[in-house]
């Protein structure tokens, strides 16, 4: 017989022509041919075609070709893949089981071709997984234990506990984790218990993580937090409160209480108790203190005594705090000492007026026993807003700036009392301050806006009311607001022709000859519509839609007098143009209205008064009645290396009519006087010439 190499030594012919294969293997499966050849004659092709084919099928039990390790460690939130492949005849079926239940494919778990995949490993993914390879020839299994590494989980958190003083306290804290190298850290409040001097000698952390606190004191009460950690990610925490019950005690009471002579004072009795304090009794020189016999004396709920007017009656007082159970007082001696409260020797004036940029010194001195400390503070703001205090306790503004305008308070303080005095600083030569207390009264299709003016900066100020509807559209810049001028001297304005039941925003702007102040706070209001029983007037049959495009081709050119801005009128407008408004922004700050009264016939304007080494941006808007266009293109101007032009804040202000009439009258009188003087000189010269001629 002729056999493949894999069959060598295991194949032989027996009982005539039978083929015997010993120790059958799975690879012996296949087709076998039985062919008869005659040895006494020459073989022909036909002899090789008379064979018979037989297929041998070898049944084999399942055998694993690939299995995962017996133990697999994986971190929480990682991925996991377990592969198990087996062979046999017939081909075995491979499934995965956990706790004797087949693992089914789901959102995060997939089982395919003997491979178990977990997309996101969780703590619950830990456990024992078994691979089963089964066929009719038998079943084999392989087990893998999955260990999930992650931070601890607290299984026994601490519980709130209440103990009496000097008793021991126990707070449990147990956690589970893999790896299990747990360390427990305990905190009282935000401090480690071993870092607190009053705790470190009396506290222990047990092996299971619990906290043992010996002989508790009142200072031990509070919040305790247990934090177990195994070094993986952020550890968990659990907290509980320890309450310590103790009788009433007088704590750190000063041996001397300083009271101001002739002023109200307080003799404090600092106590603590748990349960809370019920009563406090006072004695004087060993005898109960009878407050009803001391006019102006009273006791606060916390046990402190209020002395209406300090005098010698308050000397020699002893404080005692009592607790209901057990009534064990803890007396503390307290001596009342009367001293002179601070008194001002030099007070600041009620008001100071000074130009911006100049120096201003405001005196304030005081005396007392002990000598007081004098401090300054700007009311409504923190600190001194850039001002300084010299050695004489005077407030020094060097230089005075706009932000330092307002109410300043000088305070003198010593051990017994504190007294204050205030003064108002008015900074002149600035733009106006913002108006305050803006209120809007909604009316029928209108709103009445009122306000309180801010400081005018030392110049006459005028106001304008700005408003805009709140509609659902893309955010727009502030130029979409409509402004209305306020009559001179008025502090309110009626805004009419508003849409009913639509929200409007209102703001007030103050201006003087030096420029615009900040906008006031924005107030939102909804005008009232027509009553339900009233029929509103019918709208016109056709409403004209207003088209107003922005000014075009804005350019800026340097001249000897300033920056010359030129532009072209709007390309589209359906109503008559009423003028232009110029806006300015310096060094990427907020946009300011520089001039909004440019005539509609102009296409250029000169801007003087720019500051050297600054960066400016200009843009232009067009007005048509109460309508305002979008802004034009923005032009940039840098004054680096440019000459300083006459400031626009120094331009002459329009004079009042009486003064202007007087100036014009004076000029006219001077002109007439010059003319008459000239004519008189001419006549005299002619007469002199005639006399000379006659003499000759």
TrEMBL record:
Under the heading InterPro entries, the entry gives:
FN3_dom (IPR003961), FN3_sf (IPR036116), Ig-like_dom (IPR007110), Ig-like_dom_sf (IPR036179), Ig-like_fold (IPR013783), Ig_sub (IPR003599), Ig_sub2 (IPR003598), Neural/epithelial_adhesion (IPR051170)
State which residue ranges cross the membrane.
Answer: 659-684
Q: Matching Pfam families, A to Z?
A: fn3, Ig_3
Q: Residue limits of the Ig-like domain? A: 62-141, 151-243, 247-286, 342-426
Tell me which residues make up the Fibronectin type-III domain.
431-537, 550-642
Q: Does the keyword Transmembrane helix apply?
A: yes
Whether Nucleotidyltransferase counts among this entry's keywords is no
Q: Name one GO cellular component term.
A: neuron projection
Q: Which domain of life is it from?
A: Eukaryota
* Alphabetically ordered keywords of this record: Disulfide bond, Immunoglobulin domain, Membrane, Repeat, Signal, Transmembrane, Transmembrane helix
Q: Which PANTHER family match?
A: CTX-RELATED TYPE I TRANSMEMBRANE PROTEIN, PROTEIN TURTLE HOMOLOG A
The protein here is known as Protein turtle A
């Amino acid at each position: 017989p002729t056999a493949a190499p894999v069959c060598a030594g295991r194949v032989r012919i027996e009982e005539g022509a039978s083929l015997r294969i010993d120790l059958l293997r799975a690879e012996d499966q296949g087709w076998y041919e039985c062919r008869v050849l005659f040895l006494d004659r020459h073989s022909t092709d036909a002899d090789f075609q008379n064979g018979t084919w037989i297929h041998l099928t070898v049944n084999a039990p399942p055998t694993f070709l690939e299995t995962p390790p017996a133990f697999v460690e994986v971190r929480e939130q990682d991925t996991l893949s377990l592969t198990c492949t087996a062979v046999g005849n017939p081909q075995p079926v491979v499934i995965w089981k956990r706790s004797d239940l087949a693992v089914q494919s789901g959102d995060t778990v997939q089982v395919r071709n003997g491979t178990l995949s977990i997309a996101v490993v969780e703590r619950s993914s830990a456990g024992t997984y078994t691979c089963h390879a089964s066929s009719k020839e038998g079943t084999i299994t392989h087990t893998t234990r999955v260990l999930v590494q992650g931070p601890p989980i607290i299984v026994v958190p601490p519980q709130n506990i209440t103990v009496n003083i000097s008793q021991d306290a126990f707070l449990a804290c147990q956690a589970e984790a893999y790896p299990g190298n747990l360390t427990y850290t305990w905190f009282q409040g935000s401090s480690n218990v071993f870092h607190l001097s009053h705790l470190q000698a009396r506290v222990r952390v047990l092996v299971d993580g619990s906290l043992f606190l010996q002989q508790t004191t009142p200072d031990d009460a509070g919040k305790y937090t247990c934090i177990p950690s195994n070094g993986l990610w952020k550890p968990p925490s659990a907290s509980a409160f320890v309450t310590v019950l103790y009788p009433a005690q007088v704590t750190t009471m000063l041996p001397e209480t300083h009271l101001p002579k002739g002023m109200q004072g307080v003799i404090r009795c600092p106590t603590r108790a748990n349960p809370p304090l019920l009563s406090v009794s006072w004695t004087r020189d060993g005898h109960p203190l009878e407050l009803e016999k001391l006019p102006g004396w009273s006791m606060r709920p916390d046990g402190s005594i209020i002395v209406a007017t300090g005098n010698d009656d308050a000397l020699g007082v002893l404080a005692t705090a009592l607790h209901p159970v057990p009534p064990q007082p803890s007396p503390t001696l307290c001596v009342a000492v009367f001293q002179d409260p601070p008194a001002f020797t030099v007070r600041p004036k009620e008001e100071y007026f000074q130009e911006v940029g100049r120096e201003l010194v405001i005196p304030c001195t005081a005396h007392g026993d002990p000598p007081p400390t004098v401090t300054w503070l700007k009311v409504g703001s923190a600190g001194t807003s850039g001002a300084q205090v010299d050695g004489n306790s005077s407030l020094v503004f060097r230089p005075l700036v706009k932000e330092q305008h307002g109410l300043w308070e000088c305070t003198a303080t010593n051990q017994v009392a504190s007294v204050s005095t205030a003064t108002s600083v008015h900074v002149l030569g600035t733009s106006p301050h913002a108006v305050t207390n803006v209120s809007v009264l909604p009316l029928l299709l209108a709103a009445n806006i009122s306000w309180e003016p801010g400081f005018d900066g030392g110049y006459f100020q005028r106001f304008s009311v700005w408003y805009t509807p709140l509609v659902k559209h893309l955010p727009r810049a502030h130029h979409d607001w409509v402004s209305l001028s306020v009559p001179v001297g008025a502090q309110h304005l009626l805004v009419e022709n508003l849409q009913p039941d639509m929200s409007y925003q209102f703001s007030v702007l103050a201006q003087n000859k030096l420029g615009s102040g900040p906008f006031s706070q924005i107030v939102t209001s909804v005008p009232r519509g027509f009553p339900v029983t009233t029929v509103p007037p019918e709208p016109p049959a056709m409403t004209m839609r207003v088209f107003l495009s922005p000014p075009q081709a804005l350019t800026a050119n340097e001249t000897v007098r300033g920056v010359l801005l030129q532009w072209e009128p709007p390309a589209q407008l359906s109503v008559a143009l009423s003028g232009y408004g110029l806006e300015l922004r310096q060094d990427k700050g907020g946009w300011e209205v520089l001039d909004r009264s440019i005539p509609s016939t102009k296409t250029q304007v000169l801007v003087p008064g720019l500051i050297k080494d600054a960066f400016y941006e200009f843009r232009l808007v067009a007005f048509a009645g109460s309508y305002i266009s979008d802004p034009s293109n923005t032009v940039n101007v840098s004054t680096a290396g440019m000459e300083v032009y006459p400031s626009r804040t120094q331009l002459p202000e329009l004079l009042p009519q009486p003064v202007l009439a007087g100036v014009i009258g004076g000029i006219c009188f001077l002109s007439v006087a010059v003319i008459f003087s000239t004519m008189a000189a001419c006549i005299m010269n002619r007469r002199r010439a005639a006399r000379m001629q006659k003499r000759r």
